[in-house]
């Protein structure tokens, strides 16, 4: 009588391989159920994968623009707040000048000078504001403090004193009380004003560039996202402030003081107009940015939809397949355990 050799090793190995393959498939299905996309898009899509890659590149570009626009939005908002502070300072000086028009009282003039000094300090602080480590009003020179503060030793103060001394010497004016209204008007318009509207402004006051930062907010749209202190609104404010600080309380006649007051009011009003124009320019950028962001959101949704159409899977079907596989694996574990317990010894 002949007997055949019987072994459960081959059966156990087959069951083990089935379990391993099932576990790998479960991991893959778990990822697909979680992400809603193929675990390996290249294998599943084949030649269609190139289209998916192109769409993902477009999606990345749009998301980068969206992130950049968020920074531009904050930069514009901070700039508008600074301009509002600067305009408030100009309005404060205008109010002070109106209140002191025709007033020669030394105490009142001293208080006015203090108010104007405070307004100038507030204006300078707003002009020198920083955002993310960059000066907002330096134009493209974002790493440079744009506006030099006015002090007793600042270049602007030295230039003013030199200009006044030279004018008085040239015109035979011994003391401030000898100024006539016509001479004061001539000094303000033909000596002082050119120092603020010409090249000397860069020497005494500004380290900013007149070229502003431009930011791309969409594929074909660029907007101005900063401003600078070389604008007419800032220059005229500085001129008005220095005039009133240095001349309004000087020992001059009532007529000359009124001339100084009226000229300063005129410059302050020009400053307010200029600051409003600058704010309006940035406001246009904000409006364009808002529209660009709305367009970007629509494009992002559209591209995401196309990518999902290509790479997306039926998560319900994948979940059902995963549960079926888990059941099969559990069954395989049970069968393997039983096979391992089989032994001829148990039957002898």
TrEMBL record:
It comes from the Bacteria. It is found in: Secreted; Bacterial flagellum. The keyword Transmembrane does not apply. Pfam families: Flagellin_C, Flagellin_N. Belongs to the bacterial flagellin family. Keywords: Bacterial flagellum, Cell projection, Cilium, Coiled coil, Flagellum, Secreted. Residues 45-75 form a coiled coil. InterPro entries: Flagellin_C, Flagellin_N. This is Flagellin. Residues 6-142 form the Flagellin N-terminal domain. Flagellin is the subunit protein which polymerizes to form the filaments of bacterial flagella. Residues 267-348 form the Flagellin C-terminal domain. It comes from Rhizobium herbae. Its main location: secreted.
């Amino acid at each position: 009588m002949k007997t055949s050799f019987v072994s459960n090793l081959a059966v156990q190995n087959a069951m083990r391989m089935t379990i391993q393959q099932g576990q790998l498939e479960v991991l893959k299905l778990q990822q697909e159920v979680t992400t809603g996309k193929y675990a390996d898009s290249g294998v599943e899509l084949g030649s269609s994968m190139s289209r998916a890659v192109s769409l993902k590149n477009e999606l990345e570009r749009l998301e980068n623009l969206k992130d950049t626009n968020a920074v531009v939005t904050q930069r514009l908002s901070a700039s508008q707040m600074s301009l509002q502070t600067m305009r408030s300072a100009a309005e404060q000086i205008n109010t002070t000048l109106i209140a002191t028009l025709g007033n020669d009282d030394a105490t009142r003039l001293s208080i006015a000078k203090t108010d104007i000094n405070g307004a100038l300090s507030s204006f300078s602080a707003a002009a020198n504001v920083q955002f993310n480590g960059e000066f907002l009003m330096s134009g493209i020179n974002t790493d440079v403090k744009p506006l030099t503060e006015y002090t007793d030793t600042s270049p602007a103060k030295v230039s003013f004193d030199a200009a006044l001394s030279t004018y008085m010497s040239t015109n035979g004016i011994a003391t401030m009380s000898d100024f006539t209204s016509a001479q004061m008007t001539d000094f303000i318009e033909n000596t002082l004003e050119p120092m603020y509207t010409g090249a000397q402004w860069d020497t005494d006051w500004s380290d900013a560039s007149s070229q502003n930062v431009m930011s791309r907010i969409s594929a074909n749209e660029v907007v101005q996202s900063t401003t600078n202190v070389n604008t007419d609104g800032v220059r005229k404010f500085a001129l008005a402030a220095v005039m009133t600080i240095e001349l309004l309380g000087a020992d001059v006649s009532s007529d000359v003081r009124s001339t100084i007051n009226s000229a300063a009011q005129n410059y302050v009003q020009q400053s307010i107009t200029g600051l409003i124009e600058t704010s309006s320019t940035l406001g246009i950028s904000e409006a364009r940015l808002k529209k660009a962001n709305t367009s970007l959101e629509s494009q992002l949704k559209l591209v995401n939809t196309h990518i999902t159409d290509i790479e997306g899977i039926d998560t319900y079907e994948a979940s059902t397949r995963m549960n079926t596989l888990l059941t099969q694996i559990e069954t395989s574990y049970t069968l393997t355990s039983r096979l391992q317990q089989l032994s001829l010894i148990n039957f002898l």
